[in-house]
Amino acid sequence: MEPLADGEYDAIVLGTGLKECVISGLLSVQGKRVLQIDRNGYYGGDGASLNLTTLFEKFQAGPCPNNLGQNRDYNIDLIPKFIMATGNLTKMLLHTKVTRYLEFRSIAGSYVVPASCGQGKPLRIVKVPANPQEALASPLMGLFEKRRFKNFLLYVQSYEPEDPSTHDGRNLNALTMRQLYVEFGLCPDTHQFISHSMCL
């Protein structure tokens, strides 16, 4: 067999997932010689972002259809990766200089598959509304629910913790999120996709 690499190393790291890359990066910036290898033909392990061809190969789904566009038009995350902009993980990534290989951007939107899909109805992917205009146009809610959701969004957007005049008599330090939803009359499906978006 041809040797994987020549020379001696202080550490050999198996895998190219996030934790393996952070470990390799931390060792490297300390001046250690590191060999990092992966059994896959792509970087990232379970958290990789794959192009179309690699995605179809990974899941043995046959050849990639020609009508989906160019390979480079796609980056499909096997696991969505959301990190807080000022969190410790971001500081560690900056310190290890992996930002040369990563691209950070703000979240453009969150999408859900409505619960009604799969019950004789076609699969739809719908953007979770993030402002009053999107709420009014969203197919996720009926007309009256849209009005309630718009009022909820306006309240949240104008809320200032230090300004009691924006609290509308509500103590958000005492109310649970579910209680706040109920106060605005929002239905359980709306509770779910708002919470889903906030968790992301």
Q: How is the topology of this model organized?
A:
Blueprint: E1 11-14, H1 18-29, E2 34-37, E3 49-50, H2 52-58, E4 76-77, H3 88-95, E5 111-112, E6 126-127, H4 132-137, H5 143-158, H6 177-183, H7 188-199
Parallel strand pairs: 1-2
Antiparallel strand pairs: 3-4, 5-6
Summarize the structure.
With 200 residues, this protein is mostly helical. 34% of the residues lie in helices and 8% in strands.
Question: Helicity level, as a percent range?
Answer: 25-40%
CATH superfamily of the largest domain: FAD/NAD(P)-binding domain
For the terminal residues, how far apart are their CA atoms?
46 Å
Gyration radius from CA atoms, angstroms: 23 Å
Query: If you consult CATH, what is the topology of the largest domain?
Result: FAD/NAD(P)-binding domain
Notes on the structure:
The protein has 7 helices and 6 strands. It has 200 residues and is mainly α. It has 2 domains: 11-100, FAD/NAD(P)-binding domain; 111-199, Guanine Nucleotide Dissociation Inhibitor, domain 1. The strands form 3 sheets. It has a two-stranded parallel ribbon. The longest helix has 16 residues, at 143-158.
Which keywords apply here?
200 residues; mainly alpha; FAD/NAD(P)-binding domain; Guanine Nucleotide Dissociation Inhibitor, domain 1; 2 domains; two-stranded parallel ribbon; two-stranded antiparallel sheet; 7 helices; 6 strands; flat
